[in-house]
């Protein structure tokens, strides 16, 4: 009965060690008696793009056995807190740069805050020392010991390991091969812990070795069992895969990765799965569970939910006169999943044969036929936003101008220019054709300058119906009225016709 109670106590310790918590009590350092002083130091770590990292942020601090530790979330990744100051940081997909988060250690109202900076680099580059926690099991048979390869999951970079803190219930040392050898005190059953440090030219890192000491008469068989989980569309899920397993103190690892997503084991021994964007359906992975008496594998079956709303684009129709433009509210008859988390945007898939089209700032389609064109035309547009793209056409009918025998008319324009200073370079633009009248049965109008203004210069930007005149000056006084003249010409019924108009620039 005594041995059975010790075994239950030991497994209680290891399950507590693996329990995820955002508020953590540090068990290793003790404060000097009577001081009550918290000492925290900033930390810096390095990982690679799309690669998570597990670090101990309080290994270099003195915060006492009763201190609580809280963490903030970084801006460019996610943070999961474990025990004894261990955290798992996962950068956002494809993020490269420096991310930061804070942690605060408190004893009552006495608090201290530290900063953790994590450099996420694009390539392997320079080597950075890092150490990961280890877990092993030993059957205590009065004189037995265990040899643990503590460096197998570390980034050593040529660093040298050393014992930083001896266990509370035994002795530990490093052998010639840098394996940690642990020997418990006679008769001790339960959890024990050793702290070691890597020291080298590329930095230092510390980690904990947790050892579960069992009765030599007890044999634990590792058993992994399949799991099932459901994932929301474009979401993620955390699965406690060890809940239905007999882990015997062992650690899980991914043996076969999923085909349609990414997965990793966090510091709490849980599986974190994220499907690829816009995927829905079935996915699976295989994990391995290794313990002191063997290893086994199991599968996790994942069902990614379908989107709750399907985007649907429907055709539109519009009629316009030649040499004009039309704006079509293409979304008014479409299913854009309004009110959901999907952000749907329209885009041009195929330009018209006899004109130009674009999507304006209000997500409306603007169509302009080629000069003088009369007849049918069409545009293909698409809706994207939730992984269910949809296409539709807009059909145009371009009719002849209602006044084919019109007279060419050039109308005057005026605009105000407010100068920054008397020496600054200032410009203003005039859309000259907007108020002019030209003939459908003629060629497209051409524009030329008849005479320039006194202080500035003008230039023509030809762009069909949107042809503009640009006025610029560096010498015009304030206030003054600048004047210049332009001419538009058309060939109507084989004869060239021209008209002039003045433009006034009021400079303030």
Automatic annotation (TrEMBL):
Keywords: Signal. The keyword Signal applies. Residues 1-21 form the signal peptide. The keyword Protein biosynthesis does not apply. It comes from the Bacteria. NCBIfam families: tand_rpt_95. This is Tandem-95 repeat protein. It comes from Adhaeribacter soli.
């Amino acid at each position: 009965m005594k041995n059975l109670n010790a075994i239950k106590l030991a497994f209680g310790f290891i399950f507590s060690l693996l329990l995820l918590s955002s508020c953590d009590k540090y068990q290793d350092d003790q404060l000097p008696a009577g001081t009550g002083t918290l000492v925290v130091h900033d930390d810096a770590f390095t990982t690679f793009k799309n690669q998570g990292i597990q670090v101990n942020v309080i290994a270099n601090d003195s915060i006492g056995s009763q201190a609580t530790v809280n963490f903030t979330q970084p801006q460019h990744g996610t943070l999961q807190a474990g025990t004894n100051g261990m955290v798992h940081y996962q950068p956002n997909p494809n993020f490269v740069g420096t991310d930061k988060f804070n942690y605060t250690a408190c004893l009552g109202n006495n608090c201290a805050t530290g900063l953790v900076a994590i450099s996420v680099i694009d390539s392997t580059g320079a080597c950075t020392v890092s150490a990961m926690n280890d877990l092993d099991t030993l059957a205590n048979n009065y004189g037995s010991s265990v040899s643990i390869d503590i460096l197998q999951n570390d980034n050593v970079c040529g660093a040298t390991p050393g014992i930083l803190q001896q266990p509370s219930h035994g002795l530990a040392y490093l052998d010639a091969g840098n394996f940690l050898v642990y020997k418990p005190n006679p008769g001790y059953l339960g959890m024990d812990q050793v702290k070691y440090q890597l020291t080298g030219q590329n930095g230092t890192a510390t980690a904990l070795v947790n050892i579960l000491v069992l009765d030599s008469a007890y044999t634990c068989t590792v058993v992994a069992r399949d799991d099932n989980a459901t994932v929301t569309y474009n979401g993620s899920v955390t699965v406690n895969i060890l809940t239905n397993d007999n882990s015997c103190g062992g650690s899980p690892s991914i043996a076969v990765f999923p085909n349609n997503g990414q997965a990793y084991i966090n510091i709490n021994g849980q599986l974190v799965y994220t499907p690829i964007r816009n995927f829905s359906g079935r996915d699976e992975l295989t994990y391995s569970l290794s313990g002191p008496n063997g290893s086994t594998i199991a599968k996790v079956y994942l069902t990614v939910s379908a989107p709750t709303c399907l985007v649907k684009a429907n055709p539109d129709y519009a009629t316009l006169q030649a040499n004009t433009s039309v704006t079509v509210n293409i979304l008014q008859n479409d299913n854009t999943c309004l009110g959901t988390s999907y952000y749907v945007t329209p885009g041009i898939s195929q330009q018209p044969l006899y004109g130009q089209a674009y999507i304006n700032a209000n997500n409306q389609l603007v169509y302009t036929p080629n000069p003088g064109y009369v007849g049918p035309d069409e545009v293909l547009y698409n809706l994207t936003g939730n992984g269910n793209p949809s296409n539709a056409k807009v059909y145009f009918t371009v009719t002849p101008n209602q006044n084919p025998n019109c007279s060419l008319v050039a109308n005057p324009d005026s605009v105000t220019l407010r100068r920054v200073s008397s020496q600054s370079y200032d410009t203003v633009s005039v859309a000259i054709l907007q108020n002019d009248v030209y003939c459908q049965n003629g060629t497209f109008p051409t524009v030329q300058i008849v005479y320039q203004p006194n202080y500035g210069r003008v230039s023509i930007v030809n762009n069909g119906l949107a042809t503009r005149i640009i006025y610029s000056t560096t010498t015009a006084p304030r206030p003054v009225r600048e004047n210049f003249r332009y001419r538009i010409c058309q060939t109507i019924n084989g004869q060239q016709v021209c008209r002039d108009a003045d433009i006034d620039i009021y400079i303030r």
